[in-house]
């Protein structure tokens, strides 16, 4: 696969839904029937088995997609229309949260190690700091700063092709540490060396371990 493809000729740009439908045809029956507006018990089991999700949001400043992870079951299924996601410690950029306070729409993509299929949930979120609710999601006595309470609008599984093509769970394709620029090296370069990259990398494992919650 070339990394230096020529610039695409605009005459071949697709600019309408009609062009897309002519290119791809109609979706299969199964791809439509799998979508529900509530959490079927089977979908609930998938969410309860997922230790990781990607959260996509949109706001006036643009788009954001960020990771969320914890032991499997960290996303609480309150009922067939409601999810609760504790917001754990991060880097305090809060890009997703800034978006959600102005546009509550979100999309979630759940990944389950070893499974090719993923689960997609679309909905709208409230951001809550209700102290009684926060207590329910404490870990090691530490509360999340807030909770995302998600009203589910659409849920369906995504077929395994992308994960299979990527070899995502194939240990033989895992990229060894050291084969890519480290976080410290990246920060050193992007900060014009105002950040000591070697010191950052040296402290990183302990910092992550001690600040998970």
UniProtKB/TrEMBL annotation:
Superkingdom of the source species: Bacteria
Entries under InterPro entries matching the protein: Pyridox_Oxase_FMN-dep (IPR024029), Pyridox_Oxase_N (IPR011576), Split_barrel_FMN-bd (IPR012349)
Gene3D superfamilies the record matches: Electron Transport, Fmn-binding Protein, Chain A (2.30.110.10)
Domain (Pyridoxamine 5'-phosphate oxidase N-terminal): residue spans on this chain: 40-159
Pfam assignment, any one: PNPOx_N
Xref: PANTHER family: FAD-BINDING, PUTATIVE (AFU_ORTHOLOGUE AFUA_6G07600)-RELATED
Name used for this protein in its record: Pyridoxamine 5'-phosphate oxidase family protein
Native organism: Herbaspirillum lusitanum
UniProt lineage: Bacteria, Pseudomonadati, Pseudomonadota, Betaproteobacteria, Burkholderiales
């Amino acid at each position: 696969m070339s990394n230096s493809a020529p610039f695409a000729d605009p005459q071949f740009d697709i600019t309408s839904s009609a062009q897309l439908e002519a290119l791809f045809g109609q979706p299969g029956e199964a791809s439509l029937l799998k979508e529900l507006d509530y959490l079927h018990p089977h979908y609930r089991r998938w969410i309860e088995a997922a230790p990781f999700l990607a959260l996509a949001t949109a706001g006036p400043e643009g788009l954001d997609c960020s990771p969320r992870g914890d032991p499997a079951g960290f996303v609480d299924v309150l009922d067939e229309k409601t999810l609760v996601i504790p917001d754990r410690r991060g880097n305090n950029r809060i890009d997703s949260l800034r978006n959600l306070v102005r546009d509550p729409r979100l999309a979630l993509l759940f990944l389950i190690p070893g499974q090719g299929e993923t689960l997609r949930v679309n909905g709208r979120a409230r951001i809550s700091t209700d102290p009684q609710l926060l207590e329910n999601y404490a870990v090691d006595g530490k509360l999340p700063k807030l909770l995302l309470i998600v009203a589910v609008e659409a849920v369906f599984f995504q077929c395994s092709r992308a994960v299979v093509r990527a070899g995502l769970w194939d240990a033989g394709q895992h990229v060894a540490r050291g084969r890519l620029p480290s976080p410290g090296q990246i920060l050193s370069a992007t900060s014009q060396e105002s950040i000591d990259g070697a010191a950052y990398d040296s402290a990183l494992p302990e910092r992550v371990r001690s600040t998970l919650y």
